[in-house]
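help with this record:
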Amino acid sequence: MASTEINWPWQYSFPPFFTLQPTAQTRSKQLAAWKTLILDYCRQTKTFTLDVREAGECPLFYNSSINRRLPSDVIVSVLSELSKSSNCTALDKAKNRWEIYWHTLEEWASMIYGYICDVGLQNTVLTFYELTNGKDIEGQEFAGMQTEVLIKVLRVLEDERKCELILSDDMQGVKFF
């Protein structure tokens, strides 16, 4: 994960934040705070995948200054709640690996297509690399997007008939309409 200065919310330094709260109302607020924190952290660090088995060492789930760590089962619970708003999806049945979308796939699709239209790249073929790492992409929020996530986003645009994916052995790219 990238080394970015994170502005942690006040809860992050509050030890009970790292223990699932028993009272329904308190737990609801705690889960909402965790969901916001996960999305903000992933946006700031450009993190697209989380592995719950390794998450205990990640600063997101481990505050070393108070020596508190969010347990793996609670991480899975928070991510499961986050998936209800289409902001993440489990990549395996065991729910160990997750893709995180700080924008929903539909929001990402709109953002990418808006960029394509703004710079006049309709009827152009771009490689996935050009679309996420090209010099003209710097500063765009989708810069650095992982290929697996990009394909899912482009499938949304393909369903809307705004692009066509090119997924051959020798080229991975997209033609925008």
User: Anything to note?
Assistant: The chain has a mean pLDDT of 93. The chain has six helices and eight strands.
